[in-house]
Amino acid sequence: MTFADFQMTAELRTAPEAVRRQEERLLSSVIAALVERLRRKPPQVVVTCARGSSAHAATFGKHLIERYLGIVVAAVAPSITTIYHRRLSMNGQFFLAISQSGKSCDLIEQAVAARQSGAVTACITNDAKSELARSCEFVLPMEAGPELSIPATKTFIASLSVLARLTALWAEHEALANALRRLPDRLAASSELDWSNLVGVLTRAESLITIGRGPTLAIAREAALKLKETSRLHAEAFSAAEFQHGPIALVSSNYPIVIFTPTDAAAAGTNQLALNLKAKGAALFATGSNDAPPGQLETLAPDQPETDAICQIQSFYGMVVRLAAARGINVDEPLHLQKITRTR
């Protein structure tokens, strides 16, 4: 099979239109109603609840909300409610669940409990008629359309753009709102960037590290997950700061490191880490201009930090399909995985 033959390829290429649909359809009015509610009585804490790729989207949301609104964001462990039967006090707070299918039992039960406790509840989902959607007061649809490939691509990107739209309106951040209007075209351009220099190295690898910071930490985490799902390749994600507190001992010439460099104030420290790792002999690959070929990963010119980060994962997804093929794996049929995972 060629790159174009995979379902995952077809779906990642439709991500730009999914993001464009969000702008054109009813999403803005739904978000406006939610924002009006949150402004009327601002929460002290935003509580997120998600699994898998959606949990990485929640990490992206944490950065956005803390960065632009100054409100603490914390991830809740559904098992406290579903397994240990302890109700959490969320009265007056904002509970946000993220799920592509809206069918995971633990997220649904936690959403019901949060609403009963007095939280403002919302979910980001690709199925506006799902049980999770029915359990929340506000439903923010991804507008991604059907996603048939098991590894999530366009729904992950769509969830990131929903989070960015929510933040832009809530924080009245015009630069972010304008960047989101440019995002569909930038995603399409990102799909065409060449990250093939990674394929040869990762085809032979047994393990690697992904690194990000600020808006790209969620991208690094999603990249590590996709490498496991699609190529059966162990990958572990760290923030650029966290990596220096112990994991840096792993650095060697045969242990690849992929850095997703942010385009905001976190870039300086991340670039310095890249230089330090090169000096230690790391097999380093990085986005942006902090490295020279063959280790540089091609990116678009910077536009806005959060949407730049979204474009980086779009380029990575295209590389992943080629990597899996080089490793003899069909990305549309990952081992032991299914599209909907029901946990409790």
Describe the structure.
With 344 residues, this protein is of the alpha/beta class. It folds into 2 domains: 3-184, Glucose-6-phosphate isomerase like protein, domain 1 (Rossmann fold, 3-Layer(aba) Sandwich), CATH 3.40.50; 193-326, Glucose-6-phosphate isomerase like protein, domain 1 (Rossmann fold), CATH 3.40.50.10490. Helix content is 47%, strand content 14%. The protein has 13 helices and 10 strands. The chain has helices at 7-12, 15-24, 27-40, 53-69, 79-82, 105-116, 131-135, 154-170, 174-190, 196-204, 217-231, 267-279, 305-326; strands spanning 45-50, 72-75, 94-99, 120-125, 138-141, 207-212, 234-239, 256-259, 283-287, 296-297. The chain has a 5-stranded parallel β-sheet, with helices on both faces. Helix 12 (267-279) links the parallel strand 8 and strand 9. Helix 2 (15-24) runs parallel beside helix 8, helix 8 (154-170) runs antiparallel to helix 13 (305-326) and helix 11 (217-231) packs parallel to helix 13. The radius of gyration is 19 Å and the shape is globular. The two termini are 37 Å apart. The model has no long low-confidence stretch (mean pLDDT 90).
Overall, the morphology is globular
CATH class of the largest domain: Alpha Beta
- Give the terminus-to-terminus CA distance: 37 Å
- Report the major sheet: 5 strands, parallel
Q: Write out the CATH superfamily name of the largest domain.
A: Glucose-6-phosphate isomerase like protein, domain 1
Q: Runs with pLDDT <50, length 5+?
A: none
The overall pLDDT average reads 90
The total strand number stands at 10
What amount of the residues lies in strands?
Answer: 5-15%
Task: Estimate percent helicity.
Answer: 40-55%
Total of helices? 13
Widest sheet: strand ordering? 2-1-3-4-5
Q: What is the CATH-assigned architecture of the largest domain? A: 3-Layer(aba) Sandwich
User: What structural class do the secondary elements suggest?
Assistant: alpha/beta
Question: Radius of gyration, rounded?
Answer: 19 Å
Order of helices and strands: HHHEHEHEHEHEHHHEHEEHEEH
CATH topology of the largest domain: Rossmann fold
User: Number of domains in the coordinates?
Assistant: 2
